Amino acid sequence: MRTTIGWRASGPTALRRTSLERRDLRSDDLAVRVDYCGVCHTDLHSLRDRDQHAKAPLVPGHEFTGVVTGAGAEVTAFSVGDRVAVGNIVDSCGTCAMCRAGQENFCHSFPTLTYGGTDRRDGSNTLGAFSREYVVRDRFAYPLPSGLDPAAAAPLMCAGVTVWEPLRSLGVGSGSRVAVAGLGGLGHLAVKLAVALGATTTVISRTQEKRDDALRLGAHDLLDSTDTRQMAATRDTFDVVIDTISASHDLAPYLKVVAMDGTLSLLGYLGPVTVEAMDLLVGRKKLSSAGSGGRRSTTEMLQFCADNGIAADVEVLPSAQVETALDRLRRNDVRYRFVLDMSDLD
Ligand SMILES: [Zn+2]
Ligand SMILES: [Zn+2]
Known about the structure:
binds zinc ion; globular
């Protein structure tokens, strides 16, 4: 086994610096020195929901960039020294219909998650990238296009691809009218990507103070979700509404602003929802969801971001401040993504 250093959960809001073991490289593995890892809402949920009695340790972190430091004997696509990015999936069955379609994120036997997953070959518990080294199967590492800042690119690997797939699959492009509900980690990237795809893009937020930010990110307007008059005036307007609000909320006002035959895509809150069928019927509206991305679209998203100068707006903190980052994320006190700099683990 290889030994590295990382941040392991010791309570719902506490992490402790500790040594961790990584597997020895298999023939198709890369060893990656983790330089930057984003802090995602999933990390908060995993810490909160962690079974205190479970034997498996929890090391969060599933959107990272770094440098290849070692490669297995059969690796051909990467060399030592290459910059790479890794997201929240590190393996899949590779043979089911979803994997064959390039949608490894929907693998019928469930993709192996970057942390809290079970390795398909040795059955070990996967430990995340709040650590200095990660060992990953080569298929699930992506070359980081030059021109992308490694810190600001890290959040593209979870937040970025999660909003990219629905924007693409719903055909957003020049002339599309897109609304993004909630301006956080997912939302701010949805705005940048939608604008770069050519869509007229509106932010829907209850926080009027975010208007300047929304416009700076490229949005054309900000709708106040607490202003029923404004919302009513926008009825049947948007071809796609990307809903990134992470807490449970009433979908009716957001369905109302979807245009005829348009789609409300739920990306932030993935628990049970209640929908009035009439809110879908009037205007033949659709409700959908998505999450993460397959290898093909992840590669495509990274290149699109490099070509269009898109990355996350990040606040970089030394990894020793991981608890501060999590605490502030819990209070939505970040514009718009924390990224941990792992160099303090050396
Ligand atoms: Zn995530
Ligand atoms: Zn599969």
